[in-house]
Each structure stands twice: as structure tokens, then as C-alpha cells.
Amino acid sequence: MSDNSQVLKISGERLEVEIARPGTFYSGSRFDWTGFITGVLLDGKHTFCAPESLIPGEGSGGFGFCNEFGIHTPIGYDEAKPGEKFHKIGTGLLTRPDESDYFFFDKYEVTPFPIKIDCASDQITFDVEPVECKSYAVHMTKTVCVNKNRMIIKYILKNVGFKTIHTEEYCHNFISIDNNPTCSDYVLKFPYSAEAEETPQVLTVKGNEITWNTQPQNDFYIVPGGFKPVENHTWELVHKPSGVGVREISNFPVQKVAVWGKGHVISPEVFIEVHIEPGQTQSWERIYEFFTI
């Protein structure tokens, strides 16, 4: 593999995974630059990754399986004055532009963290060196590996600063199975009731299943009502005509679950609370199984 290639590739018995080299495909201020997964190929023919928007320049640059730290709780933002920097784990030091509240969709100036990359045929490890800012500093190691039909993303975060790290992390999961549009061909399953207080009209919720009445023309968003904080959480998305699907297994305390999407993409989102005292470490992993029925 060339050290200068913009796409890093790993493969196993059934999966081929493409990962963007940090700062090439994506260089924005929202998502983690490491482990930005732009392609998953199952059995040489089934694809899963989609863009956030089909309109060039629209949205925040999300694609495939990309994660974000601090969508609601940015580290040190309230302590930074306009023109000063604050932490965005996996991305870099961002510059606070003014007195307004932090908004994840806004574009902030980024000073990226130094990142070392170690590549093997079936796994890639990103070592994000800590940069101190206002007594906050985090050393993150993220490994993406494949094993048969599984893609596993492993996180290890160590607080090497002097202040407590308190934020959240989730993976956005921009999914379209074989580029099939969002419609009644899909079913999304949870291990609890998905019925919610507010359900978009394009959705039908019955028990633990979400389906679509028609192809959405606008964004949709739903928070499954039966969710309670739990470990060993699983969701499963299947394209019924083809029998191709993906499930995410979360072997960590899940803080929140939501589903976002558009006419071309479905994004189940599973959140974890990140709370690390100085000198301590927090680790977790996300397991994705890609399958055919």
C-alpha cells in the first residue's frame, strides 16, 4: 500500500473496506478524521456506503460510516473566548468564531491533530497524538479491522490532560444498501418498541420495526420510544427484496438512539457517553455485521 494513497484498504474473507486517509476525502470540522469509512463491499458485490447529500456542497460532508465526538457537548467550548481554540476529538483544535453557541453543523477553522497510521492487510490503526488546550488533552487510538463478515471499530481514549473529559460519541452510519432508495423495501429493527411520540408521516412504526410508506422528499428523524439505557444493543437494517442487510452490535452502555435519513440514505445512530478523569482510559468497540439472508 502506498504511503501517499488517499484511500486505505483492508480486506478479509468476505469484506473489503475503504478508509479515507485523514484530511483527504474529508477535512471538515464536524466528523472524526480517523476511520472515515467510504466503502464497504460484501462478497464482492454488495455495497453499503452513501453520501450525506446527493447535491455537491450540501450538508456537512458525511459519507459512509463516520463518527463524531461532541455533537452536543463540545470540550472546552464555553471556556474559549472568540478567536480561541477548543477540542474536537479525532478532528483537531477548532477556533471559536464569536459569542454564539456551538452548533455542530457550522464550519469552524480546524488545526488538525498529528496522526500516525499503521497499516496491515486486515486492519488499520490511527494513533492521534494529544495536543493540550486549556488543560484538556486526549490520546486516541482507533483501529478498524475486518473478520469474515464483520467490521470492527475499536476506540481507546486516554485523558492525558488535567481536566475531566465529558462528551459523547456516535457513528452516523450513512447507509444505502446497493444504492437502493429509501422506501417500503427496507425494514429497520430494534430489540424494543420503536414507537415514538412524534413519527414522521413517511414512516410506519409497528412494534420494534420501522418501514417507509414512500420515498422521503425531506429529512426524517425519529427517536425510538421504547429505548432505555442498555448494554449489548443491536439494530438491524434489511433490504427485503435482496435479503442484504447490516446490523450494529454495541457492547457498551448506550446513552441514546436515533434514526435520521433522506430519500437515499438511512442512518441509525447509537450514542455512548464519554467520561474520562485525568489519567484514566475509556475504551469501547462498534461491531458491524454485513449479511445476506
Automatic annotation (TrEMBL):
Top-rank taxon, per record: Bacteria
Protein name per UniProt: Galactose mutarotase
